[in-house]
Amino acid sequence: MQELLNHLNNLPFNYEEAVAVILFAIGLSMLLFCRNLLKKVIGLDVMDAGIFLLLADRGYITGRTVPIIVDGVTEMEYYINPIPAGLVLTGIVVSVSVTALMLSLTVRIYKTYRTLEIDKLYIMMTNWRKGERE
Questions:
Q1: Residues 79, 67: contact at Cβ < 8 Å?
Q2: Phi and psi at residue 120, in whole multiples of 5°?
Q3: Contacts by 98-101, CB closer than 8 A, 24 or more apart
Q4: In this structure, is the dihedral angle defined by the CA atoms of residues 130, 131, 133 and 134, taken in order, positive or negative?
Q5: Where are the domains of the chain?
Q6: Do residues 21 and 53 lie in contact, with contact meaning Cβ atoms separated by under 8 Å?
Q7: How many other β-carbons are positioned within 10 Å of the β-carbon of residue 130?
Q8: Which of 21, 34, 113, 124 could form a disulfide with 39 if both were Cys (CB 3.0 to 4.6 A apart)?
Q9: What is the mean pLDDT of each run of 10 residues along the chain (134 residues)?
Q10: For domain 2-133, which CATH number applies: 3.40.50.150, 1.10.287.3510, 1.25.40.80, 1.10.10.10?
Q11: Which residues contact 67 (CB under 8 A, 6 or more apart)?
């Protein structure tokens, strides 16, 4: 309980983490509770934004600069770690690719079934399978 109180006391200083967790929770709730495929795609993108914000926040160190050697300064304590920034950029590229694929499949589903509601799609697919057996 004391550890939780310490985290809550540090919340004004770690608001980036709080925003990242809130974004992730919003995206996860959209994935779990929305019945529309397009809203699920948006929820996944919101979750990605929360993860990228958390990674970028963890990689930043106050008082340090980007790791580009200027004026002969080569000591590591003057620079931030570039690995989290590289992970965020790679994640953004993968996220955009996955989103494009999901949106293209969503368009195909809509053109075929004229709906994006999961319940209606399930009923249509079940009826189609039953008609195929008879």
A1: yes
A2: -65, -40
A3: 98/44, 99/41, 99/44, 99/45
A4: positive
A5: 2-133
A6: no
A7: 9
A8: 34
A9: 74 83 96 96 97 89 80 80 89 97 96 93 87 60
A10: 1.10.287.3510
A11: 79, 80, 81, 82
